[in-house]
């Protein structure tokens, strides 16, 4: 009976380790590592080392996870992918001005903007789901997409709405339900 439980625990540890390493979101990776640490404390318990099990549960599972999540919360990065419309100078100028204003706005709100200029099409970027904001030049306007897990969509939407220069900018907040349909 104990051998079966140990095999299940070891299997779950392998799954959690792979999930933590392959996770695209740091918050999820931290949670996976916390669960991994909890399972490690059970392994110590099965190995008749209750003192190590308690230490692992307290330090590895709780304190480390809380410290990492707190540090992650303080270090706020906003990844902005920018896809220019090479055929339209109006869209390029609008995009450059918008990106500059957005970067200033984010810095004022204690974010670190990380701008990625790319020539990939917006559909493939939506499939990769690596952005917080996706700015796409479309003819004589700009579409700004906010990722489905971006908790700051409302703040960014208000920033775009309140500025007269942004009247030709369409802000689209993606949710898990709506997704992207091109």
Radius of gyration: 22 Å
Order of helices and strands: HHHEHEHEEHE
Based on Cα principal axes, name the global outline: elongated
Main beta sheet: strand number and arrangement? 5 strands, mixed
Lateral strand order in the biggest sheet: 2-1-3-4-5
Strand element count? 5
Structural class: alpha/beta
Average pLDDT for all residues: 82
Helix content: 55-70%
Query: What's the N-to-C terminus distance?
Result: 53 Å
DSSP summary: helix tally: 6
Count of spatially separate domains: 2
Report strand %: 15-25%
Instruction: Give the low-confidence spans.
Output: 176-182
Description:
The chain has 182 residues and is α/β, with parallel strands linked by helices. It folds into two domains: 2-73, no CATH class; 76-173, no CATH class. It is 57% helix and 17% strand. The protein has six helices and five strands, in the order H-H-H-E-H-E-H-E-E-H-E. The chain has helices at 2-22, 26-46, 50-74, 89-108, 122-128, 153-162; strands at 77-83, 112-118, 133-138, 141-146, 169-173. The chain has a five-stranded mixed beta sheet, covered by helices on one side. Helix 6 links the parallel strand 4 and strand 5. The model is unreliable at 176-182 (pLDDT under 50).
In short:
With 182 residues, this protein is an alpha/beta fold. Helices cover 57% and strands 17% of the residues. It has a five-stranded mixed sheet, with helices on one face.
Helices and strands in order:
Elements: H1 2-22, H2 26-46, H3 50-74, E1 77-83, H4 89-108, E2 112-118, H5 122-128, E3 133-138, E4 141-146, H6 153-162, E5 169-173
Parallel strand pairs: 1-2, 1-3, 4-5
Antiparallel strand pairs: 3-4
Helix pairs in contact: 1-2, 2-3
